[in-house]
Amino acid sequence: PTVTVAREDLYRELGVTMTDQEFEDLCFEYGIELDDITSEKEIVRKEKGEEAARGLDETILYKIEVAANRYDLLCLEGLAQSLRVFLGRDETPQFRLLPTIPTEVATITSATQGVRPYFVCAILRDLHFTPTSYKSFIDLQDKLHQNIGRKRTLVAIGTHDYDTIRGPFTYTAQAPAEIKFKALNQTEEYTAEQLFEIYRKDNRMKKYVAIIENSPVTPIIYDSQGIVLSMPPIINGDHSKITLNTKNVFIDITACDLTKAHVTLHTIIAAFSQYCTDKFTVEPVKVIDPEGREHVCPRMDERDVEVDINYVNKLIGTNLSPDKACSLLNKMSLKSTEEGNKIKVRVPITRTDILHPCDIAEDVGIAYGYNNIEKRVPQVTTIAKQQPLNHLSDLLRAEVAQAGFIEVLTFALVSFEENYDNLRRERDGLAVEISNPKTLEFQIPRTTLLPGLLKTLSSNKKFPLPIKIFELSDAVVKDENAGNGTRNVRMLSALHSNTSAGFEVVHGLLDIVMEKLGFSFPEDYHLVPCEDPTFFPGRQAQIFSHGKKVGIMGIIHPEVLKNFVLKYPVSALEIDFELLSTLIRI
Question: Is 0.85 surpassed by the pTM of this model?
Answer without folding.
Answer: no
